[in-house]
Design goal:
The protein is an alpha/beta fold. The protein is 46% helix and 12% strand. Strands 2-1-3-4-5 form a five-stranded parallel β-sheet, sandwiched between helices. It has a five-stranded parallel β-sheet with strand order 7-8-11-6-12. It is globular. The N and C termini lie far apart (61 Å). Residues 145-376 form the Sigma-54 factor interaction domain.
């Protein structure tokens, strides 16, 4: 069901008002069209609207002034700005003033509809986040950026400013922080959104094949080139190409990439002709490109061409307040994906405390994997510390002192309570398998855990049930 029902169009051109009224009414919206900013403000005061779709140049009150006054009076109003006299500076000014999106005239009607659909999806996520703060668990599509921390919100504001323009962006951050999600958000909120978003990991393709993958090749260009092939730049024409791990590009490919950025043209391998392409390049790296330049491993001119604007994605340890929110969303997702009969409701206070204090070196990707494991192992409505990976709760053991498992530890021995709990759990599992002659189903009943959890722990501890049965 659509969240947006009523739309106010403000444009001094009668033809634009007529076309938008027809198109949007046909899509099920309740549309009212006015000719200038003053009339738009009076209409906004008279009734509630979900969206204001406003031209920039209008008599008496221009669109940017209307935008600021409308947002001040109606903070929840979604505003999309249109202009035939657009520029990057004007787009940035509109977004900075509170516009959700910026559409360049002349436009196709589907571009306006697409902008409204994007705005509607954003509003849906905002509402779900508000529900989550009040104790609900939202259904959040995969691929969306979640977090209420100040550091992440600063990144998202930067993305909102950069999305409408074609500036090359370099995204930096540790592995697992969500650099590709940021790149996708830049694309989704840009005028290029209806066209392709193509992602390539430069470190995952052998150096000898990378140029062919990026720029294409002619038939017979090399031994296995039995047919001509379009490269990823051609596939992304009109849209966005995301170059992940751009620091792994070999120097010959760097030269060709620089030419694309400077001239907007590519030369497929084995071809004498060049092809024009219109592609926005967004790159990402977890390596320090400045240091690679100093070592002569990355071209300085390409570095400055890519690093027009740098977006740094903070690691999870710098946004620990987002951990419970992300955990709840992952729990809800894995409840569905793992088909749990009794869904996990959330984290126990002890588990949440552990997770909030942990450093998460693998960032959001590590948190996601930890929640999948925990949902798989949880026997009750809440995730307990024992359901979390050992690295979260078990401190590394000091050198063995020779103390036996069943002995009372002495001063100077391993006094890690977490390690002791882990050892105790392993010893109970081994004892249950010996008692039941290796029967995993009966052992799970004896241990009072699920069969699934027992199988996971057997694998985690490297236990051979048959060997334990022989010792029984």
């Amino acid at each position: 069901m659509s969240l947006f029902r009523s739309i106010l169009v403000a444009d001094d051109e009668p033809s634009i008002r007529h076309i938008l009224t027809l198109v949007l009414t046909d899509k099920g919206y309740d549309v009212r069209a006015v000719a200038d900013g003053d009339e738009a403000l009076r209409e906004l005061a008279a009734r509630d609207y979900d969206v204001l779709l406003s031209d920039v140049r209008m008599p008496r009150k221009d669109g940017l002034t209307l935008l600021r006054e409308a947002r001040e009076a109606h903070p929840e109003l979604t505003v999309v700005v249109m202009s035939a006299y657009g520029s990057q500076e004007q787009a940035l000014e509109a977004v900075s003033a509170g516009a959700y999106d910026y559409v360049q005239k002349p436009f196709k009607p589907e571009e306006i509809v697409f902008a409204l659909r994007k705005a509607e999806e954003r509003e849906r996520l905002l509402r779900e986040n508000r529900r989550l703060k009040q104790g609900g668990v939202p259904v959040v599509p995969q691929g969306h950026i979640l977090g209420e921390s100040a550091s992440l919100q600063a990144v998202l504001r930067q993305v909102a400013r950069l999305a409408p323009v074609d500036t090359t962006v370099l995204i930096s951050g540790e592995s697992g922080t969500g650099k590709e999600l940021i790149a996708r958000e830049l694309h989704t909120r840009s005028p290029r959104a209806p066209l392709p978003f193509v992602a390539v990991n430069c470190g995952a393709i052998p150096g000898g094949l990378l140029e062919s993958e990026l720029f294409g090749h002619a038939k017979g260009a090399f031994t296995d080139a039995r047919t001509a092939k379009r490269g990823l730049f051609a596939e992304a024409d009109g849209g966005t190409l995301f170059l992940d791990e751009v620091g792994e590009l070999p120097l010959p490919a760097q030269v060709k990439l620089l030419r694309v950025l400077q001239e907007g043209e590519i030369r497929p391998v084995g071809e004498s002709r060049v092809e024009k392409v219109d592609v926005r390049v967004v790159a990402a790296t977890l390596r320090d490109l400045g240091k690679l330049v100093e070592k002569g491993e990355f071209r300085e001119d390409l570095y400055y061409r890519l690093n027009v604007v740098n977006v740094r994605v903070p690691p999870l340890r710098e946004r620990r307040e987002d951990v419970p929110l992300l955990a709840k969303v992952f729990i809800q997702r894995f409840n569905r994906e793992l088909n749990r009969e009794s869904p996990v409701e959330g984290l126990s206070p002890e588990a949440e405390a552990l997770m909030s204090s942990y450093g998460w070196p693998g960032n959001v990707r590590e948190l996601e994997n930890a929640m999948e494991r925990a949902v798989l192992l949880a026997d009750g409505p809440h995730i307990l510390p024992a359901n979390l990976p050992e690295r979260l709760w078990a401190a590394p053991s000091p050198a063995s002192s020779g103390t036996g498992r069943n002995e009372v530890p002495q001063a100077g021995s391993d006094l890690s309570l977490k390690r002791a709990i882990r050892d105790l759990e392993e010893s109970y599992i081994r004892a249950a398998l010996r008692q039941t002659k290796g029967n995993r189903t009966r052992a799970a009943e004896v241990l009072d855990i699920s069969h699934r959890a027992l199988l996971y722990k057997i694998k985690e501890y490297g236990i051979d049930p048959d060997a334990e049965a022989d010792r029984g």
